[in-house]
Amino acid sequence: MKTGVITDGISLDFEHALSVMDEYGLEYAELQFVWDKEVGFLEHEEVKRVKELLKRHGKKVSNICHHIFAGMRMTEKPGGQLHQTHLDRLKRCMEIAHEVGSPCVRILSPKKEQILFGSHGAEKWNVAKGAWDALLPIIAPAVEIAKKENLKLVVENGNGTMINSSWTSRKLIDDLDAKGTLWVLWDPANKCWCHEKAYPDGYE
Rounded to whole angstroms, how far apart are CA atoms 73 and 37? Predict the structure, then answer.
């Protein structure tokens, strides 16, 4: 079994987090917040320091975890300033992933619209019309960036996000025809909040 941890779940002090990983025999470091910065904001010298500490402690990086697309509203336009800002940060995360040997870069998805699908009247009164279709051109450029960089793009099923379940995770991959590039960072606890049974339903 491969075991790891999001390092800031232990401490923002990266070296201390690695020392605790040593103590518990954890091999894989997932980088989200390092010292006082979210990972995608690290400068070149800081990334160099991260690499030195990883080597000293014999750790591998499993994932670069920046909150790409988190908090965006579905009213944001693809190619707009905010969208481009997130894509630029994703590109920086890809650079860091290459530097530290991470095979994956994580994204989230924009803020959840409450009801995405429905029929027999629900589509008129309850459904956030067009929200799902608007999501696809938000995520699609990120998939293309990952293809170009030859890295896995992983989307977490996050609470309060458009991709909050295994079902929507799989639908996103299928609708973008992104199998092999876009993967799921599966959080079985998060899906409890959208009333999806984690296993076997969600897993399958």
Answer: 24
Bin 150: left if φ > 0, else alpha if -120 < ψ < 50, else beta. left
CATH, residue 176: 3.20.20.150
Total structural domains within the chain: 1
CA-CA distance, 126 to 136, in Å (whole number)? 21
* Burial class of residue 13 (count of CB atoms within 10 Å of its CB; 0-12, 13-18, 19+): middle
User: Could you give phi then psi for residue 38, rounded to 5 degrees?
Assistant: -70, 145
Locate tokens 């025809």: which residue? Answer: 177
Expressed as residue numbers, the domain containing 58 is: 4-202
94-142 confidence digits (pLDDT tens): 999 999 999 999 999 999 988 888 888 888 887 788 899 999 999 999 9
